[in-house]
Structures are given as C-alpha cells and as structure tokens.
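Q: I have 408 residues here and want to know how they pack in 3D. Can you give me a structure?
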Amino acid sequence: MSDLFADAADRRAFEHAPLAMRLRPTTLDEFVGQGHVLAESSALRRAIAEDRVGSAIFFGPPGSGKTTLARIVAATTGAAFEELSAVSASVADVRGVLARATERLGSQGRRTILFLDEIHRFNKSQQDALLPAVENGLVTLIGATTENPYFEVNSALLSRVQLYELVPLEIDELEQVLARGEEALGVNLGPDVRTLVARRAGGDARNALNILESAAATAGDEAVTEANVEDAARKRPLLYDKGGDAHYDFTSAFIKSMRGSDPDAAVYYLAAMLEGGEDARFIARRMVILASEDIGNADPQALVVAVAAAQAVEHVGLPEAQLNLAQAAIYLALAPKSNAVLRALGDARKDVREHGTARPPKELRDAHYAGAKKLGHGQGYVYPHDDPAGFAVDHLPDELKGRKYWRP
C-alpha cells in the first residue's frame, strides 16, 4: 500500500511541478544546445547512445543542462544508476553506494553509474573516498557542478575523469525551449515577446521557462505582453561567483579592457563585478597596479587617480564609491599606455638574480661615517648641481656599466 501511495504522490508532485521540471528533456533528441559536445558525431553523444559513458564531470552555469544530461544517461544505460547530492551526502553514503556496487558487480555482473550533483561541495576526504572505485572501474562517476572543477575538485580525481564544459544557451536555442513551453501552456508569445523572454533568461533554459510560466499566469486569458515578461523577469541573472571562475574571468576582462583602452568594456565589467558582490578594495588594488604596469610614466597622473579611488573606497565606502571606481577605470582606459616601467623592473631583477647584488661604485657609497673616506667611499663623486657632468655619469655597478633598463 505504501508503494501505491508513494506512486500517487510522485504523480501529483510532477503535475504541480514547475514547467521547467515537467519539460525536462528525456532523450538526446529533445535536448537543446551544447552542440560543441553533443554534435551528431561527437564522442560524448556516441558514448551515451552506445551505453559506454566513462567517468565525467559536466560543469557550467545554471540551466545549461548538466543534470538533464545525467538523467538522459540514466534513462539510456543498462547499468544501475545511483544518485547523491554532495550538499547532503556523507562519506558513509558514498561507502554505501560502493558496497552496493561491489555486490551488484559480483552477483549480477552489472556495473554502477553514480551521479553526484554539486560535486564541488564534496571535501577532500569525501573525494578521496571515491578515488579507488573510479580508478578500478567499480563505479562510473558522473559529476555536475556550476564551479570550475580545476578550482574545486582535487587533481587525483580530475585525472580520472573527462571534463565537459557546458555554456549558456544562445537566444535561438532558448527560443526552441520556449516554443515547447508555449505548447505545454497553450499560449503563443509571438516572435518579439519570445525573443524578449530569451534575452531576459541570461542563457538559462530553466530561467526562460520560469519567466514564461510566470508571465503566462499573470496574463491570464489575455495575450502575454512585454510588460508581463518584464514583470516576471525583474531579477536579472548574475553569473558571478566571488571565489571561483567568474571572479578570475571578470577580473581578467576588466584589466585587459583598461589595458586595451576600451572604457565601455571596462565600465561594464566593473559594474558586473560590483553587482556580483566583488570586494571594492580588491578592484581598487587591481587599478593601482595597472596604473604603473600598463601606463607608468606615459601618464604619471594615472597612479594618482588610481590611488585616490582606492582611498575613496576606504573613506566613502559603497555604494557611493562606485562612482570613484568608475571615474578611475575610465581614466585608466583612456590614458596613453606604456609597459616601460614593467620591462625596466623585470630586466633589472633578472640581472640581480643572475649577477647577485653587485656593489655600487665606491664614489656612490655612503661616506657620512668616520673612516668611510679612508675606504675610498665618495671619492670622485660629481655633484650634478655643481657640475652638470654628474648627469652624464653611469651610476650602475662596474659589472653592469652600459646596461639600459628604462626604454621609454
């Protein structure tokens, strides 16, 4: 009886589930997007179709199809399929799966696929518990994560799996997803409204269907309008993680935009970082570094502006200091560029490492203490303000005379 009640509960839960859950693809033919890894002749598509999927990790932003792909594998494989969420699973849960896999393989000759959602939430000891089973083939591991696995999964486990990066869906791909949603809801958005929903979804298929479902419910028996869509999509998707992939990618893009004299891109990436909750002091530090690294004496004022922005962050704080950061970012982007300071310091440090700290010539050494002159310190020094010939002297150590580090 309990099974009958459970089955009925599952059916009713599915009927009341969000549209995105009800329309989750169950076959590769229904799956939309990710053509770079699921093209007709691709290794992954053929492996799924032929039921020979090896251990793999799918990583990418929300709504790109990671869990859906895993469930398609579950629907097509002849292997036993076990599922754990790293959010709640313990080492004991993992050992339980491995024990069942061992018994299954020994008594039935049947292999086991373990789907581990949010694999980045597993700590090192939990990941280590999986290693032997993945290595000897006791289980085929399929992990899913929104984080870059190179940051979150230990190298021993990474070396034993294939990595597949899933990307946000394109507008036309989201429109295909929405067409299925419209059919399921019995509505017709029209091309302009459908494109608006796709744009507001931010590459996320689940978000697109959620917006559609909410907009359709708001419209009732009337046609869904752009106003309904805007109302349903008030919160724009922010694909930003302060400690992972997006942090490094957006920081890199921000710096390279300023270095490349693109103020529009610099302000955009700055806004994305601030909206994503990035530490304003971190942003300011990066601009202070860039002011010397990429501008230097081509415009010495750049360093003054960058330092002033950093001070404003400390004294004014957010949200007002966003204006100071934006002003500085635009100034740095528009400033003339030179990496002469970076090259000069790099060449000088190379000589220090290769030749050691060569001693200054005696005429440049400290001569203020008693006995220094007896050692010859300061003798022959030409004071430039008394004799302009002092400006023409090569002040480098004897071993390095003639070296040029500063090349403006």
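Q: Anything worth noting?
A: Residues 245-334 form a domain with the Zinc Finger, Delta Prime; domain 3 fold (CATH 1.20.272.10). The first strand starts at residue 56 and ends at 59.
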